[in-house]
Design goal:
Low-confidence stretches: 1-8
Shape: globular
Number of domains: 1
Number of strands: 2
Radius of gyration: 17 Å
CATH class: Mainly Alpha
Largest sheet: 2 strands, antiparallel
Distance between the termini: 63 Å
CATH architecture: Orthogonal Bundle
Strand order of the largest sheet: 1-2
Mean pLDDT: 94
CATH topology: Fic-like fold
Strand content: under 5%
CATH superfamily: Fido-like domain
Length: 218
């Protein structure tokens, strides 16, 4: 039997919205256009971010269930499987994320390891905070626990950790645009537990965040 992929898996997480030409996942809003879905997800993320900032305290030690709750807080109004671990295998650009049946165990390991080690994220040097963000972010991305929205949930968690460490809301421009390829390469490096490349990107993100914050307060 051929291995299941994100395209031939069965179940709600594998379904697309009728009329979307297989471009939009089946959703609670009946959205079938990519642009409309992108807007709906972006608007929902802003709301979820504001709610999450109020919900999680500076001394919160994050666990796997919290990450599921963040995903559900954001995408619950849009997808019926929000907050549930994915049941389909997924890859991107020839890179395969964790096999779906392994996700429960891998998230438990994330909870016992990086989440226990680095949350709550305490105030420290740029380098120390960036390292904490890099380890948690990379390991979560490599697991890719959800059907969609993994990168944005990982950034939301990084933002919350940054707030715990006394940072303003993080600006993630250092991970985007011209830096996108460096970001992808840094995630691949983390497969070998080499977090230095991603740590450097988060150092840039922290520096840019403080610079923007200072400019806005001037």
């Amino acid at each position: 039997m051929a291995n299941r992929t994100r395209y031939d898996a069965a179940g709600p997480q594998a379904e697309h919205e009728p009329g979307s030409r297989h471009r939009v996942l089946r959703n609670l809003l009946g959205i079938c256009r990519v642009g409309d879905m992108q807007q709906a997800e972006s608007e929902a993320l802003l709301i979820a971010q504001q709610e999450a900032v109020e919900l999680y305290a500076d001394d919160q030690r994050f666990i796997a269930a919290d990450i599921c709750d963040l995903h559900r807080l954001w995408l619950g109004p849009i997808y019926p499987w929000a907050g549930d671990f994915r049941s389909v295998n997924m890859g991107k650009g020839g890179f395969q994320f964790a096999h779906a049946p392994l996700i429960q165990r891998l998230m438990a390991e994330l909870e016992r390891g990086p989440l226990a080690d680095f949350t709550p994220c305490v105030p420290a040097s740029y380098e120390a905070v960036a390292h904490a963000l890099a380890v948690v972010h990379a390991e979560l991305i490599l697991i890719h626990p959800f059907r969609d929205g993994n990168g944005r949930v990982a950034r939301l968690l990084a933002l919350l950790m940054g707030l715990q460490a006394g940072l303003p809301p993080l600006d993630f421009a250092a991970l985007d645009g011209r830096n996108k390829q460096n970001y992808i390469a840094s995630i691949h490096a983390a497969l070998a537990r080499d977090y230095a490349p991603l740590t450097r990107l988060f150092e840039k993100a922290i520096a840019r965040t403080w610079k923007l914050n200072a400019a806005s307060n001037a």
